[in-house]
Q: What sequence folds into this?
């Protein structure tokens, strides 16, 4: 009579308890996940589209609806790249990726008609150190490529003056170098993507 | 009487029982994002939410949890709330979610949460545990916001992303870099111990 | 830089420039409390290396072959921590049974490790940065070694410091944080060490 409850309390009850807790926890998270899944994937899409718009130098309203509107109106999707009409002619927007310090950096680069001059640049994804390398996402950094032509030279933060100079990020020399390699590749990559070589 | 306990439970973690100063707990994952006020606020709100609700839930279950699997159940429940924070951030504040990256997930191993559950929630009633969790989270929040305030202001001359100091200001880059976090926290602990703690002792 | 060299660059970066303790502040709790004694630091440091180097690839396999195929990526926090806890528990039991001296020097630190944020942190970084299996292993191993070096150095300094005259309010964790700050600065100096380009 005594053995039964002890066995139950020692073995079955903990297992049962753990099982129920696990079940409820997973049910709860799965429910919330499914409820927000559409929203999350819409955000992903919106992120990429915003990067394309920024790289193309297209002005847009920074909301999900604004991004969609501007994207549908101004951007032409080609095979592996995008184009848009700027004031001085066609702009090509190409996706690029390469190694960063910690992982892959993916960017969108907008090039002018000559396929050399940058019309803009935007980060799609990066995993650099927050507060250091991750500052490549900040607009002062991405903005300084606008209107400049590769090959770029990195100079100390806050000192860029010449046409091909860009400010590096203090404390993130590695990331800055990787980023520079990536952008210096842009013109060549654009040729091969667009000409389909 | 009951009202007094409630009050005391709420006040203590804010002052003389502050989790960061007194117990030096839980600075792990959040200190890494204290170079920006915005990121810090979101992270600490996540910690506060998780601490409060984990304490509440585990306090509800406290008489039913078999002692052998106590840690497992605690981890499970904490992880669940952190996943909720992560999913909600991803859906509604995708930019913040991208910036915080893995640090949201690391809230699970924040020692404050497990510490409050073990030390308080398992002995007290659900409502009281909820208050304790909230207050501990709040005590944690203001300390980390103070650190972020100093680091962002000195490191970038701005607050909340807006430029505050004029162009005469030379950024102390060391502040937004990792060593800055160590120094600011150390100095803060020093100042607090030198002033408030001494009064409390006397 | 050659992309096949990437895993090794990450290995060195995770030991020095991107030291998980000194740049990401992970594993601070045990770092502050254990670094008082050189001997215990050695034990805990070795245990951290072992657990990181084994659980990171394990979590990689679980993530790649269990979570992704079933679309359960959002459960990774729970799954990773369970894998780590279960692995630590198993190792502790094995060591206790087979080697008494090893248990005394290493095994007793294992329970402390489950709550060490650095272990979970490495697994989460690995997922976000989309590492391959080899890179995950080297990243785990490197981060472990980096943590080991940091805690040993700190324990050595703190033992010497027992003779120093520290202001009473700065004693204990505060002065440890100051030293950690200087160590972080010193480790940042390594960033010029490996020329990656």
A:
């Amino acid at each position: 009579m005594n053995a039964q409850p002890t066995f139950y309390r020692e073995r079955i009850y903990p297992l049962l308890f753990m099982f129920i807790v696990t079940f409820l926890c997973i049910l709860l998270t799965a429910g919330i996940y499914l409820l927000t899944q559409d929203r999350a994937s819409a955000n992903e899409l919106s992120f990429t589209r915003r990067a394309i718009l920024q790289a193309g130098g297209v002005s847009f309203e920074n909301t999900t609806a604004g991004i969609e509107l501007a994207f549908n109106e101004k951007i032409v999707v080609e095979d592996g790249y995008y184009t848009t009409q700027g004031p001085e002619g066609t702009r090509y927007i190409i996706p690029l990726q390469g190694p960063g310090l910690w992982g892959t950096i993916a960017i969108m680069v907008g090039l002018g008609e000559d396929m050399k001059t940058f019309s803009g640049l935007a980060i799609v994804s990066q995993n650099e150190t927050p507060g250091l390398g991750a500052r490549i996402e900040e607009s002062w950094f991405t903005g300084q490529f606008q209107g400049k032509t590769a090959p770029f030279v990195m100079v100390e933060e806050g000192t860029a003056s010449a046409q091909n100079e860009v400010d590096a990020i203090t404390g993130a020399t590695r990331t800055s170098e990787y980023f520079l390699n990536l952008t210096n590749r842009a013109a060549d990559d654009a040729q091969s993507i667009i000409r389909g070589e | 009487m009951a009202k007094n306990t409630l009050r005391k439970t709420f006040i203590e973690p804010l002052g003389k029982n502050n989790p960061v100063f007194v117990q030096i707990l839980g600075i792990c994952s959040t200190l890494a994002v204290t170079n920006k006020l915005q990121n810090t606020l979101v992270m600490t709100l996540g910690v506060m939410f998780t601490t409060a609700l984990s304490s509440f839930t585990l306090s509800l279950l406290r008489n039913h949890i078999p002692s052998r699997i106590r840690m497992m159940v605690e981890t499970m429940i904490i992880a669940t709330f952190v996943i909720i924070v992560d999913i909600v951030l991803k859906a509604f504040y995708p930019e913040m979610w991208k910036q915080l990256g893995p640090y949201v997930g690391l809230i699970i191993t924040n020692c404050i949460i497990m510490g409050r559950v073990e030390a308080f929630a398992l002995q007290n009633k659900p409502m009281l545990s909820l208050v304790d969790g909230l207050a501990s989270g709040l005590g944690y929040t203001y300390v980390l916001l103070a650190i972020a305030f100093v680091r962002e202001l000195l490191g970038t001359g701005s607050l909340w992303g807006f430029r505050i100091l004029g162009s005469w200001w030379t950024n102390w880059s060391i502040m937004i870099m990792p060593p800055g976090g160590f120094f600011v926290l150390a100095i803060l602990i020093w100042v607090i111990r030198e002033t408030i703690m001494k009064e409390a002792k006397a | 830089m050659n992309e096949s060299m990437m895993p090794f660059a990450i290995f060195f970066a995770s030991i020095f420039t991107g030291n998980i303790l000194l740049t990401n502040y992970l594993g601070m709790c045990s770092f502050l409390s254990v670094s008082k004694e050189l001997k215990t630091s050695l034990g805990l440091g070795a245990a951290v290396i072992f657990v990181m180097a084994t659980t990171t690839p394990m979590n990689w396999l679980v993530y790649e072959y269990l979570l992704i195929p079933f679309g359960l990526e959002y459960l990774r926090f729970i799954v990773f921590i369970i894998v780590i806890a279960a692995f630590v528990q198993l190792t502790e039991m094995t060591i206790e049974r087979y080697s008494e001296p090893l248990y005394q020097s290493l095994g007793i630190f294992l329970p402390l490790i489950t709550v060490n944020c650095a272990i979970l942190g490495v697994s989460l970084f690995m997922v976000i940065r989309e590492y391959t299996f080899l890179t995950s292993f080297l990243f785990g191993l490197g981060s472990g070694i980096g943590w080991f070096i940091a805690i040993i150095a700190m324990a050595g300094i703190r033992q010497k410091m027992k003779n120093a005259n520290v202001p009473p309010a700065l004693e204990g964790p505060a002065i440890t944080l100051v030293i950690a700050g200087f160590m972080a600065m010193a480790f940042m100096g390594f960033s010029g060490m490996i020329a990656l380009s």
